[in-house]
Design goal:
The complex is a heterodimer of chains A (353) and B (355). Chain A has 353 residues and is α/β, with parallel strands linked by helices. Chain A is 29% helix and 15% strand. The termini of chain B are far apart. Chain B is globular and about 60 Å long. Classes of the chains: A alpha/beta (353), B alpha/beta (355).
Chain lengths: 353, 355
């Protein structure tokens, strides 16, 4: 990394329509209603993952590999399918590189005039054959090896389950800040080599930090999930992503979908605490642009959300059920999550002797 | 009326007040998100001078079935087997020490575990009420009177999670629930699995069953297909009742001798040196803010253990090694003959050869 010093410009607070502080820690525990669905019948894939790719072929390859049966544990190709969506750009991934990761990969190039992925994502979901639809709106996010397995497990818990996965950024600090200190794709590659990725995908937890929307840890409500899975019926009920999000990268469409899904009265939120999605550095809208340009983009995103929903975004307050085992290197995030909420609450630390 | 899916066995002996709290904690509306016909509670009491009032138990609801029996021995093992014979559910719960009250979503989550896998072994971490393990009650001033006072003050029946506020780890899992635990004082498994290990081994004929809880937990946990679940937001809380291992005997030697005899019997029956079940747990359930300090501490202590094992190049979950299964920590640093897969072989400054 080079040593050029540039003033840090973290996400601004207090600008119009930016996310508001919330009171969160007494939110109610979800109740799981009984249902009698037999989840295990049928031969269609149980999960359809829809991934959006735009102008980041190198990152997308790693993401797609992390979704392949060679990397995902405890499942086979027939358990799930991956639908790769790509909007036209100067730097395309293409069908060959999108489908070579397994027989369960399908690729669609989606003609799109606007800078938003929402239409492509909705189209991808309409092609899905699985009972669960998992959307990944940022193809630069590679995942840990238990995602598919746990989505299938979570599906058995309840017929209207929403599965969220905490989001991380590769590197010791969020990339919009790290890039100002020289973080780039080459440095990220050395990080991945240090953990010998993809030998043990859980080691990604060794080289990452929490994303901005998950920064308070997962004992607080998450602002969004970059792997968001829900049953097809819920997806249809929500109408998928709102096509009104026409801003770059879809603006806050993913936060919006997360909130609308979690706040439906019939749904139960399950968070996979031992899994993660890990953002690779690329020239993304909110993570890879600098200064004024980034501020402007963020402001546009906030404004569009406020325009569509009548107020600034606030995370859904529903408390989540946790599911999953904890890899050793992910424990620091559990500690962080717990200490944040304890500190926020003003809990006096216990004497543990 | 349909058969309940879950039958919870509670064994009671000579502690009516504590047992009544335990049963209340298994009743409605204290237990959340379950219906009266989802489960049944099989209460088996061995005769003593201080017994439950059968009418009080019946008043808790139609899902409670109470049996009073004569027991010549001093062990609850025969009572467990008697209770098991009464169970109608496909899944059973086992609370051998009737002095252990539970938090409000134990039943719900135990049943969720069974939904994910029929081979679910659901374990509820054990705590003691009070500042310190109750076996030190003479030093800490813990007493039944104090406990009654505290329980009343916190109105635990309104919100069972408040029990966490006045609790500490049980000594059998004093390093938290993210590493191996000795025993489980509230566990759930399929009736078939319980039958397959032969129920409660009646050779555990010592007071309180001796180490039968340790035996059952490991025996069930070593079934090849078992999926171990731990409920991080729930707990089973031991109330003070002058039980076998939780009373502080005046002469420490006496206590040690008792424990020693338990260990000896355990190893005799196990047939080999006994150690805690070392399989990777899957966490399930919400964690209320009452339980979060214990989650934080558990992850802290588990980190230390993982670091130590990594340094010593030892596997994290010994008992998983013999079963081919998916675990988060399956890849350890044991074998260093790392061969990067083709996908990772670099052909340029960045990226990897992906042809």
């Amino acid at each position: 990394m080079n040593d050029t010093h540039i003033d840090k410009q973290p996400t601004p607070k207090g600008i119009p329509n930016s996310p508001q502080p919330i009171k969160w820690f007494d939110s109610a525990i979800p109740s799981i209603k009984r249902d009698g669905i037999d989840y295990l019948t049928g031969t269609a894939p149980r999960v359809s993952v829809v991934v959006m790719v735009y102008k980041m072929p190198e990152q997308a390859k790693k993401t797609l590999y992390s979704l392949s049966a060679a990397y995902q544990r405890g499942i086979t190709e027939s358990d799930y399918e991956v639908i790769v969506m790509e909007n036209p750009s100067s730097s395309m991934l293409g069908k060959t590189d999108a489908e070579k990761w397994g027989n369960n990969f399908r690729y669609f190039e989606y003609p799109e005039a606007l800078p938003t992925p929402v239409n492509a994502m909705n189209f991808g979901a309409s092609q899905a054959r699985g009972r669960m639809i998992a959307v990944m709106i940022d193809g630069a996010r590679m995942v840990s090896p238990g995602i598919i397995n746990y989505i299938i497990a979570a599906e058995r818990l309840h017929s209207d389950v929403i599965v969220a996965v905490p989001g991380y950024h590769l590197g010791v600090k969020v990339q919009q800040e790290a890039m100002l200190e020289g973080y780039d794709e080459a440095f990220e590659q050395t990080l991945l080599e240090k953990i010998r990725w993809p030998e043990d995908g859980y080691r990604l937890f060794e080289i990452c930090c929490l994303s901005g929307t998950s920064a308070g840890g997962y004992l607080k409500p998450l602002g969004e999930s970059n792997v968001l899975a829900m049953p097809r019926a819920i997806w249809d009920k929500l109408g998928g992503y709102d096509p009104g999000f026409t801003e770059t990268g879809g603006g806050q469409c993913n936060l919006d979908l997360h909130k609308r899904a979690v706040e439906l009265p019939e749904t139960v939120l399950v968070t996979l605490i031992g899994e993660g999605s890990f953002h690779q550095f690329h020239g993304g809208i909110t993570t890879g642009t600098k200064g004024e340009e980034r501020l402007k983009a963020m402001q546009d995103h906030f404004n569009q959300y406020a325009e569509l929903r009548g107020q600034a975004y606030t995370p859904p307050l529903n408390r989540s059920i946790f599911l999953g085992s904890l890899p050793d290197c992910a424990l620091r995030f559990v500690r962080h999550s717990a200490s944040v909420v304890m500190k926020n609450r003003g809990d006096i630390p216990r004497d543990w002797k | 009326m349909r058969n309940p899916g879950l039958s919870i066995i509670v064994i009671v002996y000579n502690m009516p007040r504590q047992a009544m709290n335990t049963l209340l904690s298994l009743a409605l509306p204290y237990q959340k998100n379950v219906a009266v016909d989802d489960y049944e509670v099989i209460v088996v009491e061995n005769c003593s001078d201080h017994q439950l009032n059968a009418a009080d138990v019946a008043a808790l609801g139609p899902q409670f079935r109470y049996f009073l029996r004569d027991e010549k021995g001093v062990s609850p093992a025969p009572a467990v087997n008697f209770a098991f014979a009464q169970c109608r559910g496909n899944q059973i719960g086992l609370i051998i020490d009737g002095a252990r009250m539970v938090t409000p979503r134990v039943i719900e989550y135990a049943m969720l575990g069974a939904k994910i896998s029929q081979q679910a072994l659901v374990m509820v971490p054990g705590y003691h009420l009070g500042e310190k393990d109750q076996k030190f009650h003479l030093q800490t001033g813990h007493s039944e009177e104090l406990e009654i006072e505290k329980l009343t003050a916190m109105a635990w029946q309104d919100n069972g999670y408040r029990l966490f506020k006045w609790a500490c780890w049980s000594s059998s899992n004093q390093r938290g629930y993210l590493q191996p635990m000795q025993e489980c004082s509230a566990l759930f498994c399929s009736a078939e699995n319980f039958r397959s290990i032969g129920g409660a081994d009646e050779r555990f004929d010592q007071p309180g069953g001796g180490s039968i809880n340790l035996y059952l937990y490991r025996k069930l946990g070593m079934l090849p297909e078992i999926q171990l679940f731990v409920l991080p937001g729930e707990g089973s809380f031991h109330q003070f009742h002058g039980g076998i291992t939780t009373q502080e005997l005046a002469e420490d030697d006496v206590r040690k001798a008792v424990l020693k005899s338990f260990d000896t019997r355990l190893e005799e029956i196990w047939g080999a040196p006994f150690k805690a079940l070392t399989r990777e747990p899957m966490l399930l359930g919400a964690v209320t803010h009452w339980a979060q300090p214990f989650l934080e501490k558990s992850s802290d202590m588990a980190s230390q253990r993982f670091t130590r094992l990594k340094l010593n190049k030892k596997p994290f979950w010994d008992d998983d090694v013999s079963f081919p299964r998916f675990t988060e920590n399956a890849v350890s640093g044991l074998d260093d003959g790392y061969q990067p897969p083709d996908i990772m072989k670099r052909n340029s400054q960045q990226g990897f050869n992906d042809n």
